């Protein structure tokens, strides 16, 4: 249990990973006095708004919940709370300087990369897109830049060659919880050591807006793209006006009899669907998600299926 359990904590976050951090703080005795999260935007099949994961955790623990479009809209309420410390994780908005200056013990952010690498909105996806061998979690003081503040502490983990977004998300969630629980009491030490980021080493990852595969890319790059979007919400391609999502793919060896056009189906078997990619490389699709279906192995669907025929082309 935390020693500094009387200090008032304001938490800002939105998705599942942030909800896990909030739960860890509460379970270990942190005095969380409010949660700020994005407005509910997702809808279920009945078109009812779905509460954000942070909102669900906050309500389950009888915490005040604020859901402004912009944090400045609730400046008065937050100022009245007088938080001693603000903790942020994947909130979804850069907060104003007024909030950064409000708490006595500053604002800290839990960011799921080894800063200064992968600053920005999608560091878990990009760790896989870029085929990194290592990533991790950074606990940092916030400033008015995007993930540019001084680093307090970092924890690193290897990225497995077969890592998917979902598996890495779970690992980094657990690592982040370990880090914030380990460092929580130390955050109230005004002389806590920290160090500046080297901006020359910084890389950035923007919000993902396109999940469509570009077959002109090398197979390895496409394979990383597919793993980095596994279940979030899958990379896809179009085959004869049908949107097909890719769950699992493997690098493939193939010896074409003639030049191949990227995206062309070259071979269909129970082992998978071999497709030509850029730079004379090849990919074997082993598991897909077709419209209205659940994810299935290619071996389960090729018999009698006339969609996947040698010579057809994915777009």
Please state the overall shape, judged from the principal axes of the Cα atoms: elongated
Q: Look at the helices and sheets and give the structural class.
A: alpha/beta
What separation lies between the terminal Cα atoms? 55 Å
Residue share in helices?
10-25%
How is the biggest beta sheet arranged? 7 strands, mixed
Count the helices. How many?
7
How would you spell out the order of helices and strands?
A: EHEHEHEHEEHEEHEHEEEEEE
Beta-strand percentage range: 25-35%
Strand order of the largest sheet: 3-2-1-4-5-7-8
Mean pLDDT, as a whole number? Answer: 95
Uncertain parts: none
Q: What is Rg? A: 23 Å
The count of DSSP E runs of length 2 or more, i.e. the number of strands, is 15
Topology:
Elements: E1 8-13, H1 16-27, E2 31-36, H2 53-60, E3 65-66, H3 75-81, E4 85-89, H4 97-101, E5 107-111, E6 119-120, H5 123-129, E7 134-141, E8 151-158, H6 165-183, E9 204-205, H7 219-228, E10 235-239, E11 242-252, E12 265-269, E13 272-277, E14 281-289, E15 296-297
Parallel strand pairs: 1-2, 1-4, 2-3, 4-5, 6-9
Antiparallel strand pairs: 5-7, 7-8, 10-11, 11-14, 12-13, 13-14, 14-15
Helix pairs in contact: 1-2, 1-6, 5-7
Could you walk me through the main structural features you see in this protein, from its secondary elements to its overall organization?
There is one protein chain. The termini are far apart. The chain has 7 helices and 15 strands. The protein is of the alpha/beta class. The strands form 3 sheets. It has a 7-stranded mixed beta sheet. Strands 10, 11, 12, 13, 14 and 15 form a 6-stranded antiparallel beta sheet that branches.
């Amino acid at each position: 249990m935390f020693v500094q359990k009387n200090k008032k904590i304001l938490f800002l976050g939105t998705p599942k990973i942030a909800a896990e951090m909030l739960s860890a703080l509460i379970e270990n005795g942190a005095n969380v006095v409010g949660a700020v999260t994005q407005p509910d935007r997702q809808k279920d099949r009945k078109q009812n708004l779905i509460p954000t994961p942070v909102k669900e955790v906050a309500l389950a623990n009888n915490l005040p919940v604020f859901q402004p479009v912009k944090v400045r809209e609730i400046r008065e309420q937050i100022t009245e709370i007088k938080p001693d410390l603000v903790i942020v994780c994947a909130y979804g908005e850069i907060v104003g300087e007024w909030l950064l200056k409000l708490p006595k013990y500053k604002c800290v952010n839990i960011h799921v990369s080894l800063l200064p690498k992968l600053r920005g909105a999608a560091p878990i996806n990009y760790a896989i897109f870029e085929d990194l061998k290592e990533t991790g979690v950074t606990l940092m003081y916030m400033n008015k830049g995007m993930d540019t503040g001084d680093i307090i502490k970092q924890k690193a983990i290897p990225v497995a060659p077969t890592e998917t977004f979902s598996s890495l998300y779970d690992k980094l969630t657990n690592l982040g919880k370990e880090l914030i629980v380990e460092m929580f009491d130390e955050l109230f030490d005004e002389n806590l050591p920290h160090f500046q980021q080297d901006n020359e080493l910084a890389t950035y990852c923007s919000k993902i807006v396109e999940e469509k595969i570009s077959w002109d890319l090398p197979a390895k790059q496409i394979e990383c793209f597919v793993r980095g979007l596994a279940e979030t919400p899958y990379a896809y391609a179009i085959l004869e006006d049908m949107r097909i999502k890719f769950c699992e793919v493997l690098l493939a060896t193939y010896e074409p009899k003639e030049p191949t056009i990227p995206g062309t189906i070259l071979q269909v078997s129970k082992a998978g669907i071999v497709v030509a990619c850029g730079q004379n490389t090849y990919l074997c699709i082993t598991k897909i998600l077709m419209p209205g279906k659940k994810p299935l192995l290619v071996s389960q669907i090729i018999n009698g299926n006339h969609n996947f025929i040698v010579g057809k082309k994915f777009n």
